């Protein structure tokens, strides 16, 4: 058996975004949001994703899955593999837009229902803590008094979820293991015997897909990992070559550099090399953001390395 990599947007929507996926999405959201008792989701409606305005340095600006709960609350769910410029702003923008779009001109603000933006990332967003799930709401700065629960941002950082198959305890563990590892499975593990997760694996099984669907998924998968690989390679090459250039520069100029000055030259050379490797992958603003170089330096690099 071979399953889709559910971390790609196409596969994620195939599993959770179809009309027949309602029971799966209910189970998934109850597990991730820790809903039990009176708060437990018993019904929802899956809504087609909407398009948000383009943000600089980003191409895909849509939400993978949107749902409306029986109590009127909205949940927007997104799977993100690449950490690109503007990503954090997009999450907040989509949540705010979902909240504001509930009202027509002149309608009472009391009609507004809460919005939850659930974002799963295949990269680390918050180095400040080790936990894989974080929940953000609007609070007073000093006393931490909550202003309201109308907009909540929930992040799941998949690289921080490191449990093995034998360590899975509850349905939440099993859902996260499924999302992180489905693309590597060649059979259905006994630990994922939950009916809802078996159904999800059935929907992710490549055997049930047409040739056109498989081609679309594989092309999307290859594109994502090519972009991710390009960023990692550029950073690795930049670090190594930047260090060497810093040493060589000191030798060539015959300058007796202090330790701190040598470090600074090495860092600058490292940034320039990373930027050179990103020139045909990202736009200038995104390169500047990721390297710390200014736009004038990036423009000069493009001039120096453009074909004559």
Which shape, going by the Cα principal axes?
A: globular
Structure summary, number of beta strands: 6
- List the uncertain runs: 50-61
Largest sheet, if any? 6 strands, mixed
Rg over CA atoms, rounded to whole Å, is 23 Å
Q: Mean of the pLDDT scores? A: 80
Helix content: 40-55%
* Count of helical stretches: 9
Distance between the termini: 51 Å
**Helix/strand structural class:** alpha/beta
* Main sheet: strand order: 1-2-3-4-6-5
Classify the beta-strand content into a percent band: 5-15%
Order of helices and strands: HHEEEHEEEHHHHHH
Total discrete domains: 2
What features would you describe in this structure?
It is a single chain. With 308 residues, this protein is of the alpha/beta class. It has two domains: 9-209, no CATH class; 215-305, no CATH class. The chain has nine helices and six strands, in the order H-H-E-E-E-H-E-E-E-H-H-H-H-H-H. The chain has helices at residues 9-16, 22-32, 87-100, 171-181, 195-204, 211-253, 259-278, 284-291, 295-305, and strands at 44-47, 65-69, 74-80, 115-121, 133-139, 146-157. A six-stranded mixed beta sheet has the order 1-2-3-4-6-5, sandwiched between helices. Strand 3 (74-80), helix 3 (87-100) and strand 4 (115-121) form a beta-alpha-beta unit. Helix 1 (9-16) crosses helix 5 (195-204) and helix 6 packs antiparallel against helix 7. The chain is globular, with a radius of gyration of 23 Å. It starts with 8 loop residues before the first helix and ends with a helix.
Please name the defining characteristics of this protein.
9 helices; globular; 308 residues; 2 domains; alpha/beta; six-stranded mixed beta sheet; single chain
């Amino acid at each position: 058996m071979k399953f889709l990599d559910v971390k790609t947007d196409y596969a994620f929507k195939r599993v959770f975004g179809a009309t027949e996926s309602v029971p799966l999405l209910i189970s998934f959201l109850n597990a991730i949001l820790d809903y039990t008792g009176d708060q437990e989701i018993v019904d929802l409606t899956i809504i087609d994703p909407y398009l948000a305005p383009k943000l600089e340095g980003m191409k895909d600006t849509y939400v993978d899955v949107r749902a409306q709960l029986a109590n009127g609350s909205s949940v927007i769910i997104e799977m993100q593999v690449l950490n690109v410029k503007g990503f954090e702003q997009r999450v907040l923008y989509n949540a705010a837009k979902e909240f504001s779009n509930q009202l027509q001109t002149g309608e009472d603000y009391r009609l507004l229902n809460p919005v939850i933006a659930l974002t799963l990332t295949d990269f680390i967003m918050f180095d400040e803590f080790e936990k894989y799930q974080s929940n953000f709401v609007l609070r007073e700065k000093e006393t931490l008094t909550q202003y309201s629960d109308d907009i909540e941002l929930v992040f799941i950082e998949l690289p921080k979820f490191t449990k093995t198959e034998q360590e899975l305890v509850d349905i939440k563990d099993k859902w996260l293991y499924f999302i992180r590892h489905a693309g590597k499975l060649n059979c259905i593990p006994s630990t994922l015997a939950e009916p809802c997760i078996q159904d999800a694996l059935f929907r992710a099984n490549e055997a049930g897909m047409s040739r056109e669907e498989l081609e679309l998924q594989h092309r999307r998968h290859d594109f994502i990992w090519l972009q991710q690989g390009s960023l990692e390679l550029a950073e690795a090459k930049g670090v190594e070559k930047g260090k060497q250039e810093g040493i060589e520069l000191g030798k060539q100029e015959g300058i007796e550099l202090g330790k701190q000055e040598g470090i600074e030259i090495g860092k600058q050379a490292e940034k320039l090399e990373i930027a050179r490797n990103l020139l045909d992958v990202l736009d200038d603003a995104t390169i500047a953001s990721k390297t710390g170089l200014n736009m004038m330096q990036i423009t000069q690099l493009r001039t120096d390395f453009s074909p004559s």
